[in-house]
Amino acid sequence: MRPEDRVAHIALLKPDIATLDLNTMNSGKQVVINTPDNVRRMAAVINNAGVKPEIELFDSGDIALCRDLVSDGTLKGPVLCSACSAFPRRSSSGLPCRWPSSSS
To answer: Are 38 and 3 in contact (CB under 8 A)?
Structure first.
C-alpha cells in the first residue's frame, strides 16, 4: 500500500491530531515499512489536511529522525511528541505474559 493511502483517512476525517508513525513494525500478520521517505510522504498528506502530526518516540533513532524532519521542514514546530516505553509482552495467544519478579 502506498504511504499516502495509509493516511488517506486522516485527510478525509481531518481530526485535530493524528499519529505519524516513524517506525517499521509488525501489525497482525503484516509488516508496515516506514522508511524516512515514506514518513515524509505521509506527513505531507497530514500537513496538507491541516492536521497536527503526533510523533511517538520509542528510541533514540526516532528522536534523531524527528529532528531531521523538523530540520528539513517536514514537521513544523512546535512538535507534538509522546515518549513511549515499557510495553507489556504478549504471548502468541494475545494474552499478557507475566513479567519476571524483581524480588528474589
So the answer is: yes
Rounded distance between C-alpha atoms, residue 49 and residue 32, angstroms:
23
Q: In Å, how far from its chain's centre is CA 4? A: 14
Determine the Cα–Cα distance for residues 76 and 13; give it in Å rounded to an integer.
Answer: 21
85 or 92: which leads in pLDDT: 85
Rounded distance between C-alpha atoms, residue 3 and residue 5, angstroms: 5
Residue 3: what are its φ and ψ, rounded to 5°?
Answer: -55, -40
Cis peptide before 88 (omega within 30 of 0): no
Give the tens place of pLDDT for each residue, 27-57: 788 888 899 999 999 999 999 999 999 998 9
**Residue ranges covered by each domain of the chain:** 3-83
Contact 3, 32 (CB under 8 A): no
Residue with C-alpha cell 523538523? 70
From CA 15, how far away is CA 78, in angstroms rounded?
18
